[in-house]
Amino acid sequence: MTPxxxxxxxxxxxxxxxxxxxxAVLSTPAWAQEFKLRFATSVANTQEASYKEMEAFAxxxxxxxxxxxxxxxxxxxxxxxxxxVNEMISSGANMMNMTDYGQMGQFVPDAGVLAGxxxxxxxxxxxxxxxxxxxxxxxDRLEQKGIKVIMANGLFGNRHMIADKAIRKPDxxxxxxxxxxxxxIMVETFKAFGARPTEIPFGELYNALQSNVANGAExxxxxxxxxxxxxxxxxxxKTAHQIMFTNWVVSTNFxxxxxxxxxxxxxxxxxxxAENLTKATTDQDEQxxxxxxxxxxxxITDVDIPAFQKASASVYQSLPGLTPGFVDRARAxxx
Length: 335
Prior knowledge:
single chain, seven-stranded mixed β-sheet, globular
């Protein structure tokens, strides 16, 4: 069938409209473009301090950018386990992830030291390290691997062990299968403690404990409460084997593609979130401990911390891929 004159005109108009739209997109100045991010976390409890700070961060960024950066939050590993999300970010996905330095160890092994056993004596020491050239070097190397750190050091809490018995010394872990995050440093730590570490995504942990695939696990008080692990295990031992800091990351390519003013907004608000989260976590830690007690959990406090420190001291020498002398430089930065 031969097209009519009217059909020719209609087709021509559609082509002109499409051309105009394409031209508008290409000619849109960087300062006027809009950017969308999916912000992922394994945290399931949306009342937890870390998630509430994610919400506050997203809102502040949206307001300061006048809507040019919008984030949609995805709790409870809806976008996948941390490891998978981090790999997607490294490959360039327009995503942001609340993760930790143990997870970052798969990209830059030295980063795993920041999630190592008893590496920080207190928050003041940790802050010195995060403000040092030693940390800047780690962040720069992560950036080269496709991962840009937006928020570096939001306190997530001291990690303790939950099981069906008290764990006062490393010998108490012998023969136990303990869930650890998919993190090389945590796997090596629990091997050094004498346990059998198994990597299970946090979203699957409740079922793993319920079905005895794992005998125990470890996490901060807030995460133990938010994930309701107290329903399947009733003894928490205050080992404090890790002072855990969460870091928020995006794709290096995504970050470099942002106008300079939006880069600045993300970094400034990330720093503010680190301060807010550290304060909130510190304030709420004992509250979560009391909530666990009220739920029938026994909290063991007479833990032989020096024995755990001694047992895990060799971890930093056995972790593959570490830069020679990095641990010593990290410790020196905290003095």
